[in-house]
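G., the chain you wanted modeled:
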Amino acid sequence: MTLSLTRAHLMAAVAATLVFTAVGARADDHETEEAWRLFVADHKQPVVRAIDFADGKELGRYDVKGYAALTVSASGQTVFAAQSDQDIVHLIKTGIDFSEHGEHRDLKVSDAALLPVALEGKRPVHVVPHDDHAIIFYDRGGVAEIVDEAALLEGKKAQVRTVDATKPHHGVAITMGQHVLVSVPNTEIEPEPDKLPPRIGLRVVDEKGNQVGEISECTDLHGEAMSARLVAFGCKEGVLVARPGGIDGPKLELLPYPSDFPKGHTGTLLGGKAMQFFLGNYGDDKVVLIDPDSSEPYRLITLPTRRVDFLLDPAIPANAYILTEDGDLHVLDVVKGEIVRKGRVTEPYSKDGHWRDPRPRLAAADGQIAITDPRHSLVRVVDAETLKEIRTISVEGQPFAIVAVGGSGASH
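Predicted structure as tokens:
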């Protein structure tokens, strides 16, 4: 498989990277400023910390209600701290604000803060950022909410669009133009007590909530990602890809797994930003590169041990980082489709046990990789090229979930 963009296009592609990770152009009449921040959730304590990436100093400590999964908005201005066990999503202003001005962009840096508004619903799990909004799916509420980021930053829960998910299930919803892609539960079986029904497919609904077309099969739908104008979902049968379809709504196509693939399927997906492709898991010890426009869309990469976490570097489009349970960090060249180097970055963390046990998580910032090490109360900072540890940042408790926000731009 060859990805749609070759290595020769990479330098041009970097300019198209997401605003909160790309390098901004310098305007002749302004100075260039750079700022990076980490947001780290603790594994046991209900707290999220904001940390200055440059000096490791804590900028803020925000009390929440429980274990928090962190998601950054598309603009990089907001971190969503979803606490599924507490039926609430808290919102943190990152204090990193980019605005486009023709040939350059401006960077405004302000204090990070816990916003005075929260989103409440029964078991919020999936938060999907997209353009100027985010979609929160409530597993036990049977609904998804599309919320406007600008209103949230003003401390208001305004302009909320509710999407019916037919009945409670562990699902997801994603917008595509004026349409919404929504997972479909099996309504013909009665789930076990305290269990949610399995997912069987995906449907498209219009602005009025009416279904458009037929339900597309996607057994045990789990994992979603966006790349360019495409959206992909993991299924037992393959990967389901949605493409914009104009007034008639998105077009859905299932890419079946190759017949010579070992038993397994994809349940976690990441989407390329400067290049159109997807990276997914395939079982515990493999990953798969997916190019929906190729005649052979799948390329399987076998890992030496089970995967703990993986990440695409939005500022270095060819790089994906995969941390395995032996403590090695692997660099996957997504153009070549192969592991090009590896280095030991933590001591081993076994995948045995509960899926939510404290294990390292990855974030990319300014050509470096930040790795939480909950066992040692550290964030380890590793050079993306050499995979050597540059420094450590001490973080009280058990640092777990982590996201990075930042970049450079013209300052006034």
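The radius of gyration is 20 Å.

Shout if anything looks off.
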